[in-house]
Amino acid sequence: MMLAQGNSDPRVCALNLLRTIRGEVPLERTKGIDREHIDKPITQSDELKADAEWVLETYEPRLSGEEIALLAADAAGGDYALEASVR
């Protein structure tokens, strides 16, 4: 999702990167989160966190202090959210 303004802000760029599935961007096929993490159990969340950290380090070097957390909105129903705290 592109915003009407503010797209040059590193935090907006980080949000766009974390909402992108790897392979969606033509000529930049490694940008975004790997789709293999979709529907994996919470016990394998470390792989998703590591992938998100790699994406942010690789494509948004203006950020520092990335902290990635996986939040369970409804753990029993399998509803999880990836949250990144960046500076």
Automatic annotation (TrEMBL):
This is Early E1A protein. It comes from Adlercreutzia caecimuris B7. The lineage of its organism: Bacteria, Bacillati, Actinomycetota, Coriobacteriia, Eggerthellales.
